[in-house]
Task: inverse folding
């Protein structure tokens, strides 16, 4: 790999673009308006095309004004179709998005004949060639870095200026309104930031891949934290990291398979997706692996309590110890899962083993007594408030007994016998 100054500037421009997109993207994700970012990033295309046709040049200010105006029109039309036409929000976004984007493509075909513009650049970006577009000359700074850096500073300024307002309106617009904050103003402020950022990112990552920059880093951060400030910071960091990782992957990974390289903007979006998958898998709070481990521990805990409850009822009927095969049959679980639970219960001193038979120890009996008491109190409570047949009572109580807290138990009251005529163990 031959790393050059051009590669460094590609990463810098990509990082500035990703960080600038992550700021409004964070609010879009929190407000469950991710599709709006997609819609605006596409529907500003008519504004850009109109600016091309009117001015006959790629004047940045004309592009910005045209795109922001159409972006605000997009937000207004979506709101109008949703409220007046009683159309679901996703459908209203889809209507406005597809129609305006198609209109933009029609105008863009007309603009090609009058303005030096490459449609592929608008759609896919041209970050690989950003270094060669230096304005002003002699500074050694690509125009893409100046444009995206300025947009990042502007978004950061408005985020800090309206930090509290964005936070409250993202979670509770009604509360924001009661505190004198105008949710409508904050909504259109966000739409303006989104439209302006999409324009700034056009020549860097294009109108299609900019959606990934808006949504993927904030969505990844959303999985990793539930704190607003940390979410914004993580979104920025993940966007910058995805830019660097994406370009590095674009110039190295294809060579492993005999190719010269691939598009950097696309690789940045893919890198962001990879980071999202890793967060989704390994997040310490919401990761798939954590949930799988938690579910496994929960199933093991429930099975252990079922074993204790079954042994207690056997002793209640004075039937002596229980063979392993009886536990398999009664509980209907696999041999491997039951064996692990039995070993753990023996290790913790809740049951004792004699050959292939198991009996409760003193500590296990106390734990099982409490469990059976809760089970039978639930049966009494359900029979009184939600009458059902005996089998349904037992099944419902069998599920509830494993999730009953002390506070919940205090509301169940007391009883001497359950609906089946069995005594309710004392809480002593």
Result:
């Amino acid at each position: 790999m031959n790393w050059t100054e051009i590669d460094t500037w590609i990463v810098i421009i990509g990082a500035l673009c990703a960080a600038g997109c992550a700021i409004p993207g964070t609010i879009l994700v929190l407000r469950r308006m991710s599709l709006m970012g997609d819609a605006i990033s596409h529907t500003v295309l008519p504004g850009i095309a109109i600016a091309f046709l009117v001015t006959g040049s790629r004047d940045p200010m004309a592009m910005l004004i045209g795109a922001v105006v159409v972006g605000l029109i997009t937000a207004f039309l979506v709101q109008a179709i949703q409220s007046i036409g009683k159309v679901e929000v996703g459908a209203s976004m889809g209507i406005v998005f597809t129609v305006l984007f198609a209109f933009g493509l029609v105008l863009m075909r007309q603009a090609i004949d009058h303005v030096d513009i490459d449609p592929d650049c608008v759609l896919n970006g041209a970050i690989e060639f950003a270094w060669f577009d230096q304005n002003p000359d002699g500074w050694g700074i690509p125009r893409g870095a100046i444009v995206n850096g300025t947009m990042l500073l502007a978004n950061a300024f408005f985020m800090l200026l309206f930090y509290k307002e964005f936070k409250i309106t993202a979670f509770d617009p009604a509360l924001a309104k009661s505190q004198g904050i105008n949710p409508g103003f904050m909504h259109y402020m966000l739409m303006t930031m989104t439209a302006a950022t999409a324009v700034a990112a056009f020549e860097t990552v294009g109108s299609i891949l900019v959606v990934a920059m808006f949504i993927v880093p904030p969505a990844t951060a959303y999985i990793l934290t539930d704190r607003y400030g940390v979410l914004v910071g993580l979104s920025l960091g993940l966007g910058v990291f995805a830019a660097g990782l994406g370009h590095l992957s674009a110039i190295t990974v294809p060579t492993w398979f005999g190719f010269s390289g691939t598009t950097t903007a696309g690789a940045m979006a893919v890198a962001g997706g990879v980071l999202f998958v890793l967060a989704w898998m390994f997040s310490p709070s919401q990761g798939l692996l954590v949930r799988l481990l938690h579910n496994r521990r929960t199933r093991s805990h429930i099975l252990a309590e079922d074993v204790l409850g079954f042994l207690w009822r056997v002793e209640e009927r004075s039937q002596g110890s229980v063979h392993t095969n009886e536990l398999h049959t009664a509980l209907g679980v696999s041999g491997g899962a039951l064996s692990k639970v039995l070993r753990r219960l023996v290790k913790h001193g809740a049951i004792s083993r004699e050959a292939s038979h198991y009996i409760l120890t003193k500590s296990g009996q106390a734990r099982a007594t409490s469990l059976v008491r809760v089970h039978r109190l639930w049966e009494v409570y359900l029979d009184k408030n939600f009458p059902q047949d005996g089998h349904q009572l037992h099944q419902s109580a069998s599920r509830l007994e494993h999730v009953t807290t002390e506070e919940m138990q205090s509301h169940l009251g007391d009883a001497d016998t359950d609906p089946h005529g069995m005594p309710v163990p004392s809480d002593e």
Remarks:
- The chain is about 75% helix and 0% strand.
- Residues 5-213 form one domain.
